[in-house]
Amino acid sequence: MRIVLAKRETRSQIISTLVPIISFLVSLILGGIVLAFSKANPLDTYVYMFRGAFGNWMAFSETLVKAIPLMLTGLGVSLAFRIRFWNIGAEGQYVWGAIGTAWVMLYWQFLPVQALLPFSLLVGMTAGAIWAGIPAVMKAVWKVDETLTTLMLNYVAILFAEYLYYGPWRDPKGYGFPGSEPFPREAWLPRFLGRAHWGLFIAIIIAFILFFVLTRTKWGLEIQMIGKNPDAARCLGVNIKWGIIMVLLLSGALSGLAGGIEVAAIAHRLQKGIISGYGYTAIIIAWMSQLNPIAALFVAILMAGLLVGGDQLQMMIGLPAAMGLVIQGLLLFPLLAGTIFTEYKIRIKKTKEV
Amino acid sequence: MKKIGLILLLLFLACSLIFAQEAKAEPFKIAFVYIGPPGDLGWTYMHDVGRKQMMDVYGDRVDVGFIESVEEGPDSARIMRQYAMQGYDAIFATSFGYMDYMHEVAMDFPDVYFEHCSGYKTADNMATYFGRIYQPRYLSGLIAGKMTKSNIIGYVAAFPIPEVVRGINAFTLGVQEVNPDAKVHVVWTNTWYDPVKEREAAIALLDQGADILAQHQDTTEPPKAAQERGKHSIGYDADMRQFVGDSVLVSPVWNWGTYYIDTVGKMLDGTWETHQFWGGLTEDAVKLSDFSPLVPQDIRDLVADKKAKIESGEWDVFNGPIYNQKGEVVVPKGQVMSDNDKLNMSFFVKGVVGRVQ
């Protein structure tokens, strides 16, 4: 007897709604067991976590702060995944976005102050796009495996950023602490609720534009085709190499924008604390949203809620930091594992005796 | 009508009594934001010891929470905001990199007391506190200078910021005072808390021939690495001899309890004002731990003598003459370095091998 996974030809509506709900319940139960073992009341804990993330406007604003970079990197990663380009380099592209933005903010101050913000974000996007373009060209021209190249380039980007803020960009008035000078206050991206900032609207607008482009334009259809059936696409005269490169430039630009916005709105400088794994969480967001741009917005808010609410595990329940991460991981795991049931059927086959 | 008025008045009084009592019973809520886990047996551990001493003194009057391993970046602002939103009355943040974020949050929550350890930014509701750990560091340098045989002393150091540079200089001044031939070799790790990196740096120094390791790091890894090679070390933060063994000759240690008790007391009775506290041996903010049995009596006497001079205010570690690495005079004989110069220190004294990057 053996267990076989067979791809579903059609996704049934019931399964795709039922699976996430059941996975979520399994998550809560699994997390609850671990919490109970750590001598915490699971029900109270979940209530605290929910309140910590969504309980009032101020709490929700902090969830939005986390959600904005997750939305943008999530959108970027989803876009690449659509053509089955496994871009796990969103982290590096995000870092380059932050570097590009910081460069303009710090060293292009001859520009009028009003021009500094839009121009710096543009340069950040370009930097992110170039960083994604490198593995895209390598894949399109030489068929170099992109999972490795995108991943390795993350480390290059992070180390280069470290070099900058430990070295030539270090704030001379910062008492030697690693981090650049602060950006001019007039050029900060404005906030509207607590620390939540205009990046939210930028992300939402981009998500809707992406949704429109992907479903309503010729180029969107070509991308769909490259992802689902490259041979057919080629026969229909779609330039696949160019398609890969274009999609990846866009994907990198979105992650770059995330990094740029994060430094322009939240950190106001380039420093070590800004690199906190958004680009990796983006992969989870892409999966859970099933590459749908609008869904990615909501999944990003949920993920951000899990991260922000997770603080309560320490603050209210008194669990150690490591335990908090375990619980967060446990809550996520069944949700991801659950996607397998929407994509595949599980059959038990009897094997013939040989 | 009069009756109703009277009843209303009584009701009002009763209510206000109940609420007043409730308000009185409400404990003063304090939160601590830590850079590492209290189990680091170093920096965070000592803050946690101080926190508990403070809690013992005020008992039910305070309700104290803490959060560990908070990154020095935008996330730290979220943590502090959440505490402030949840009705905490005072927040202590115990690492330099929290400074700008705490300052930002302090502006938004003017009714909350903020205390930042090791920074320089203050506000009406934000104070700083720190200790002159350079004083016990100097004393530990005397011991290292006397006890080194290879005349190579290693120093595993976190960030090239004035706080760390000051410590290295004070330690080296102690070493050179008793042994002008000994040199202090510095390796930067660019982290406060990373057991693996700290160990690697320690091993690199031991490979260069160091027979005593000192450190500005938050874990016991450098002393452990030294002990495994049969070498000695100078601990830091806490009395690391308790956790590693007698190879740790002595440790300059923090003593936050006295300060925490004092400043929380002022918050409770309403006399708190913003300040910049920088306490030394005299104020009991820093200490030199007990000696390892390996430290001979004559060295102990020498240390006790210098310690008494520092405590009485008769002499200070950074009294001239002080020379930089090139041998140029930085503080002439007979002069004393100002606190401001100490806080901005960004050069190495003679006897240090390494660069302030």
From TrEMBL, chain A:
Transmembrane segments: 12-37, 57-81, 93-110, 116-136, 148-166, 196-215, 236-258, 294-310, 316-342
Organism superkingdom: Bacteria
Main subcellular location: membrane
Membrane topology according to the record: Multi-pass membrane protein
Keywords: Cell membrane, Membrane, Transmembrane, Transmembrane helix
GO cellular component terms listed in the entry, alphabetical order: plasma membrane
Protein name (record): ABC transporter permease
Organism lineage string: Bacteria, Pseudomonadati, Atribacterota, Candidatus Phoenicimicrobiia, Candidatus Pheonicimicrobiales
From TrEMBL, chain B:
Membrane-traversing stretches: none
Any Pfam family hit: Bmp
A cellular component term, taken from the record's GO annotations: plasma membrane
Keyword tags: Signal
Residues of the signal peptide: 1-20
UniProt keyword Transmembrane present: no
Domain ABC transporter substrate-binding protein PnrA-like: 29-310
Protein name, as recorded: BMP family ABC transporter substrate-binding protein
